[in-house]
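Ligand-bound model needed. NAP.
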Amino acid sequence: MSTTQQRQANLIIGAGSGIGGAVIKRLVDDQPDADILAVSRHPPMLPDELAQRVQTFTCDYSEAGIKDLVQQLTPWYGQIRLVVISTGVLHTDTIRPEKRAEDLSMSSMLEVLRINTVIPSLWLMTLLPALGGSTPCRMLTLSARVGSISDNHKGGWYSYRASKAALNMVVKTAAIEYARRAPNVKLVAFHPGTVDTALSKPFQRNVPEGKLFSADFVAERLLTISSDLPVDGDASYLDWAAETISW
Ligand SMILES: NC(=O)c1ccc[n+]([C@@H]2O[C@H](COP(=O)([O-])OP(=O)(O)OC[C@H]3O[C@@H](n4cnc5c(N)ncnc54)[C@H](OP(=O)(O)O)[C@@H]3O)[C@@H](O)[C@H]2O)c1
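Prediction:
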């Protein structure tokens, strides 16, 4: 594409996620003026109409892999207007969110922290030089309301809660450095609500009627909310209704 270097871009990291995939579909329909850059661990299986519009990148989410991927984004440096970091785990074949003290294990907790906190943190830090410039940019990291320390009334899910609380702290801290070094970037820790994806599947039974959102609904909310957000040099912790969550 000969005009790539002049075009603005949206960058979706964790493009294989239910929410990230839905954001990409929305962007294809709603934002023909910008490139769509999709990063995932595996080449995404996109239908033809999306494949023509989406530039895909694979990354193993290692430190070296993230650095290398950010290098590949050089043609879009200073032109990226939206970043969505949508990686995360709640359960795997071997990991279950803890219900009680005895469920906690070092290996599971470290793995949840690696995926939910360390990987998004590496993206936040490594992308800094790619985002600075005059293009206003909103960078949303998928957090969760259960990461709020002040809003924790139910307990349980030690590792997932801790991983999202730590992620929130990284977002808040990074916003201070971004305000100095890349003041055109707004950082957001975003709670999408309970969304009908693989991540929430085993836990959907107790979700109240009308509170299990489709990924497409959340993608619309995320894009609408982010486009209206002032770039104010501070981090925001927002839910799908644009309500502020207390840290
Ligand atoms: N669904 C919900 O109800 C809900 C609620 C609150 C918060 N969230 C947050 O929203 C984000 C997206 O959730 P989702 O529901 O769309 O989840 P999802 O469909 O299960 O996707 C999660 C993504 O995380 C990445 N990932 C999974 N395992 C990984 C591993 N071992 N190492 C590195 N990356 C891995 C993958 O990205 P790639 O395959 O693209 O590499 C995967 O597509 C997560 O951070 C989640 O915590 C979701």
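The domain at 4-239 is CATH 3.40.50.720 (Rossmann fold).
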